[in-house]
Description:
The radius of gyration is 15 Å and the shape is globular. Helices cover 43% and strands 14% of the residues. Helix 1 (14-26) packs across helix 5 and helix 2 packs parallel to helix 3 (74-83). Strands 2-1-3-4-5 form a 5-stranded parallel sheet. It is built from 6 helices and 5 strands, in the order βαβαβαβαβαα. The protein is of the alpha/beta class. The longest helix is centred in the last third of the chain and has 18 residues, at 122-139. Residues 6-133 form the Response regulatory domain.
Amino acid sequence: MSKERPILLVEDNPDDEALALHAFSKNRIGNQVIVAHDGVEALDYLFGTGVFSGCTPELPAVVLLDLKLPRIDGLEVLRRIRAESRTTLLPVVILTTSREILDLQQAYNLGANSYVRKPVDFERFQHLVGVLGEYWLNINESVEASTNNGY
């Protein structure tokens, strides 16, 4: 069996980051979680630039992407992910507190695979992370996983 691919969590709020990491642990999601604190860090990781220059980091199984990020916002990160052949099919889940209909529409227009609003309550957030983890890591068939399994 191949090594589990990491999860890329793009989150600038330290409290939400801590909640997400705790929820992954509580749900026994054992994949490594790479945390990017803004859009630039996320793109650097995905494309091997900045502090990741000179290496080609492993693509994550899924990107959990906040929208309201410093330096480069989540919608622009999504736009750049979809523009590159290496990442165009990478599963991207928008995980945000935004209730703006324009954000929802733009995210789907740019190719988001899912748009999920973060619950305020920890128990609901923990359940949500468990459902997301189960679906994107165990149920969903990705192109890379299918290619690696000889399909």
